[in-house]
Amino acid sequence: MTEGNLSPETLCAQALGWIDPTTKAIVPPIHLATTFERDPDNEYRSGRSYIRENNPSWDQVESLLTRLEGGADTLLFSSGMAAATAPFLALKPGDHVIAPNVMYWGLRKWLLGRTEWGLAVELAEMTDLRQVAALMRPGKTRLVWAESPANPMWQVVDLAALAEIAHGAGALLAVDSTSATPVITRPLALGADLVMHAATKYLNGHSDVLAGTLTAARKDDFWEQLHGLRTSGGAVPGSFEAWLLLRGMRTLPLRVKQCSANALHLAENLQRHPAIADVLYPGLASHPQHALARRQMQGGFGGMLSIRVKGGEAAAIRCAARVKLWKRATSLGGVESLIEHRASIEGPGTPVPGDLLRLSAGIESAEELLGDLEQALAP
């Protein structure tokens, strides 16, 4: 066995096996310095100049994620939104982008507001490859943004086919893989150019860090633009946040495995519940993209699912109000299970149906989580 073919479990548990060279500590120190000394000739041969550009506390977590994704480099950002918006901010007025109609609401809302400075934005049903291909404008389309599985309806996108379409028109493919994590899907291996994670979610997994990441398939001019945007815009995390994120990633494969198993158990049982109209989960044979999910998602189908409650919006809100173990809270990917009525949160203009509840399955007892939902759904 060589270092190059270690499993995600080993890479994460040992955080690449790095040891502090000065103290030989297993756990890395937290570097709080904001500035670094120049050499006598005013050069920075240490590679460090100012914390906004290069923080030693980022090195290990960025390197770990680069290995997990099979990429060339990773940038750590202050939030998932900071990471997600960076590729769009690197574009020019007149550039054309395609994004999903169903996607993370915060980014969707932000993106549609960018038309005011000349970015041409079109939303597409990303599972309809013919529609995406028809929207491409060769020479004008610079970026195709995908999310798989897509929050909160959990559609699975054929990333390899989408990459071929994007590259055929001279565009880049960027993938929000937050809900899949690199443990389940590696978009770069399927042809994507960039992969984004809201690291606040599964990568950290403990609901105590705000962070985001971008990982590139290669270091090129566009990647350098993104690096410059992070530095000049100051969208950088603190040292303690980076340290906590690395701490969380040490158990990433274990947490994702348990969350996925719990979500599958819940989905299989809830699809038979008389109060449920539909269960949206890629691991179910009834899911429209189940066959694709089996090919593209390895080792599980993720911890996210949604249920549509018979009786409409009022019945869904009533169910969320009656849970005891599940927590009514925004976010996902933590060790604790969360439930949320998305249409209320997103407000006017949301494509999410009013009868939908989004569930983030944690690592608790699956039977106890199911029992809590069953009592909440009872007449």
Structure description:
The chain has helices at residues 8-13, 59-69, 80-89, 105-112, 129-135, 159-168, 181-184, 221-233, 239-249, 252-270, 290-296, 312-322, 342-346, 366-377, and strands spanning 73-77, 96-100, 120-124, 141-147, 172-176, 194-197, 212-216, 276-280, 304-309, 327-328, 338-340, 356-360. The protein is α/β, with parallel strands linked by helices. The chain has two domains: 3-249, Aspartate Aminotransferase, domain 2 (3-Layer(aba) Sandwich), CATH 3.40.640.10; 252-377, Aspartate Aminotransferase, domain 1 (Alpha-Beta Complex), CATH 3.90.1150. It has a seven-stranded mixed β-sheet, with helices on both faces. The chain has a five-stranded mixed β-sheet with strand order 8-9-12-11-10. Helix 4 links the parallel strand 2 and strand 3 (120-124).
Mean pLDDT: 96
Enumerate the spans where pLDDT stays under 50 for 5 or more consecutive residues.
none
Shape: globular
Question: Could you say which structural class the secondary elements and strand pairing correspond to?
Answer: alpha/beta
Just name the CATH architecture of the largest domain: 3-Layer(aba) Sandwich
CATH topology of the largest domain: Aspartate Aminotransferase, domain 2
Helix content: 25-40%
The biggest sheet, with number of strands, parallel, antiparallel or mixed sense and barrel status, is: 7 strands, mixed
Number of helices: 14
In total, the number of strands is 12
Query: Kindly, what is the distance between the CA atoms of the first and last residues, rounded to a whole number of angstroms?
Result: 57 Å
Number of domains: 2
As a percent range, the share of strand residues is 15-25%
